[in-house]
Amino acid sequence: MARLIRTWLAGIMSEHPILVTGATGKSGRRVVGRLRAKGLPVRAAARTGEVVFDWTDQSTWDAALEGVRSVYIVQLDGTNLVRPFVERAVRHGVRRIVLASGRGIDLPGYAKDSGGILEDILDSEAAVRESGVEWTISRPGWFAQNFSEGFFADAIRAGELRLPAGDGAAAFVDAEDIAAVVVAALTEDRHAGQVYELSGPRAVTLTEAVATISEATGREIRYVPLSVEDYVAELVQQGLPPADAESFADVIEPLREGKDEYVSDGVGRALGRPPRTFAEFATSTAAAGGWPT
Ligand SMILES: NC(=O)c1ccc[n+]([C@@H]2O[C@H](COP(=O)([O-])OP(=O)(O)OC[C@H]3O[C@@H](n4cnc5c(N)ncnc54)[C@H](OP(=O)(O)O)[C@@H]3O)[C@@H](O)[C@H]2O)c1
What we know:
Number of strands: 11
CATH architecture of the domain at 2-141 and 174-199 and 262-275: 3-Layer(aba) Sandwich
Order of helices and strands: HEHEEHEHEHEHEEHEEHEHHHH
Shape: globular
Distance between the termini: 59 Å
CATH superfamily of the domain at 2-141 and 174-199 and 262-275: NAD(P)-binding Rossmann-like Domain
Strand content: 15-25%
Mean pLDDT: 93
Helix content: 40-55%
CATH topology of the domain at 2-141 and 174-199 and 262-275: Rossmann fold
Low-confidence stretches: none
Largest sheet: 7 strands, parallel
Number of helices: 12
Bound molecules: NADP nicotinamide-adenine-dinucleotide phosphate
């Protein structure tokens, strides 16, 4: 009987579109690509692109959720909209939710959280766990793609990364691995109720990360460690309001303190293989033209 229900559920899941929020972002874009490569129907949702979905405009939520049975949620940091969204999703008949969260959010003192962002994400996790439907939580640490598509990308392209990160290291995780785990959780039964903490195979210092990208691109790139005060002053000089500059410095603090050095086993548990190395990330990104000058 249980097998029959599983087969019936699998049939339903593959007929209905899978909603991917944050579909133009670092993880969502890759999740969309991988689901489509499997021939599965996908609703790629963001403020721009295929399906217009705006976290801050709840009138866009129903059209995104209509007929959907599985959802990947990439929340909007600084808001607490996941709980009402999950309630709405369940009303629409969603049966499986994969939530993008982050490593360290449940570790006391992991990061300064004056804006209450970590509290919001913890509440998002609680909302998903309490939803009554199958759920999986993806908790990645620092993305390797911060160097190619995110926070550090412009500096890397310009040849100099200036950060108040000292000799700090992190076990950077490749967004390709994050997407592979999310796709497994969206499409396979055995991930229900799992929290996957995701990291790369070992900690990499910023000096090593930048040297690895230098080698992969054949360009000279430097990492220049700054004091927090100098970093904030530089950002303010570039036109950032002081409060925003302080917030950026706060984001770097766990990196400086080595709080993301530890290695997690989520990629191995979910996929049965080791995570990609930082060198693999750098080589494949360079080969794909990821650091145009
Ligand atoms: N970067 C890291 O190292 C790291 C580490 C751990 C956890 N995280 C967490 O991962 C999440 C970010 O994931 P990501 O890096 O894959 O995304 P991302 O690259 O930052 O992209 C964000 C996505 O959200 C969409 N978006 C932005 N504002 C929106 C709005 N108002 N309504 C609907 N969609 C909106 C963007 O598309 P449009 O702009 O086109 O709407 C884009 O698709 C965050 O919650 C972050 O805290 C990040």
